[in-house]
Write a structure and sequence with these properties.
Elements (H helix, E strand, L loop, with lengths): L4 E3 H8 L3 H10 L5 E3 L4 E5 H21 L5
Antiparallel strand pairs: 1-3, 2-3
Helix pairs in contact: 1-2
């Protein structure tokens, strides 16, 4: 059975960003997550992580199609 939720440490590894950056994504609501357990450890649903990655791909495509930042 595939895992439904992953800890923030794994999310950081998948995205290639720091733990602090991952936590900031969660706290801002950009990456939905839940707190579980007595110590309130964060978990991200795999489907939510996949959706976040797809949104980032879409934003990147739009950025490239526009020709990058306006100067």
């Amino acid at each position: 059975m595939a895992r439904r939720f992953v800890p923030l440490t794994e999310v950081s590894e998948v995205l290639g960003v720091s733990a602090a950056q991952t936590y900031a994504l969660v706290r801002s609501g950009e990456l939905p997550a839940i707190k579980v357990g007595g110590r309130g450890q964060w978990r991200v649903e795999v489907d939510q992580l996949d959706a976040y990655i797809e949104r980032m791909y879409a934003q990147t495509r739009e950025f490239v199609q526009r020709g990058g930042p306006e100067e």
